[in-house]
Design brief:
It is a single chain. The chain is an alpha+beta fold. The N terminus is likely disordered. A hairpin with a 5-residue loop joins strand 9 and strand 10. Helix 1 crosses helix 2, helix 1 packs across helix 3 and helix 2 packs antiparallel against helix 3. The N and C termini lie far apart (about 65 Å). The protein is globular, with a radius of gyration of 23 Å. The chain folds into two domains: about 80 residues, no CATH class; about 160 residues, no CATH class. The strands form eight sheets. A four-stranded mixed sheet has the order 2-1-3-4. A three-stranded antiparallel sheet has the order 11-12-13, with no helix packed on it.
Length: about 240
């Protein structure tokens, strides 16, 4: 009986719409979540109906499990997504992808288009992509978990969907020396690095808004004053415009 109910859940789950043709990682992941839920619901209905009155509850549970599994597997990300450094969502926020760096081929821009190579640039306030002047090796870094992080982002979503604010490719110490390596923090008005302190705030919708920095280091000299930009992996300041 249990095998029959499980098979029924599988069969019905395969009838749900597939989202596998979505082009971007964002669409594929959202589609996979929706397909998993749809498969669970369809499997529960099928399992409950086939089981009969006395076993309807057990049949619904077994069918839901089977449907969820099939719905999830039918909409697994395709090869392009599994070879992506990550993707930008519609709000220009970076989502990291945990893959071996030897397998990374490119990324998806905010419109869901595939771009070869690692991100090299940033999205301005009006949504325009502004190409960077540094080469690919200077445009970002790998964090401690092996995820590619563009140097121009003020934060990113990790592979669990959690927002990591204030992530940078390195920082300057109090003597103006560049300390390479992933770090999280910000500078005060005198150019002193504050580990773990964030230079920004969350709005009413819990979206992270990066504030202008109080200055920047320029070849060992602190230049005070509101500034927008980021340091590449070599510690060179790249000015951004909104």
């Amino acid at each position: 009986m249990r095998r029959t109910l499980l098979a029924a859940g599988f069969c019905l789950a395969t009838l749900i719409p597939s989202f596998a043709m979505a082009q971007s990682c964002e669409q594929q992941r959202n589609g996979q979540a929706a397909s998993t839920l749809a498969g669970a619901g369809a499997g529960a209905l099928a399992g409950g109906a086939i089981a009969g009155h006395d076993n309807r509850g057990a049949g619904a549970v077994i069918g839901a499990i089977g449907g969820a599994i099939v719905g999830n597997q039918l909409t697994r990300p395709d090869a392009d997504c599994t070879h992506a450094y990550g993707y930008y969502d519609r709000d220009s926020r970076w989502h990291a992808n945990a893959i071996d760096r030897a397998n990374a081929r490119g990324y998806f821009d905010r419109d869901g288009n595939w771009v070869d190579g690692a991100p090299n640039g940033y999205y301005a306030g009006d949504g325009r992509w502004v190409a960077g002047t540094s080469n690919g090796s200077e445009s970002g870094y790998y964090d401690r978990q092996g995820r590619w992080i563009p140097a121009s982002v003020n934060g990113y979503y990790d592979t669990r969907g959690r927002w990591v604010a204030g992530a940078v490719s390195g920082h300057y110490d109090g003597r103006g020396r560049w300390i390479a390596g992933p770090a999280t923090g910000s500078y005060d008005s005198r150019g002193r690095w504050r580990s773990g302190a964030y230079n920004g705030h969350y709005d009413s919708h819990h979206n992270w808004i990066a504030d202008p920095q109080p200055g920047y280091w320029d070849h060992g000299q602190w230049r005070a004053g509101p500034a927008r930009g980021y340091y590449d992996a070599d510690g060179d300041w790249v000015s951004q415009r909104d």
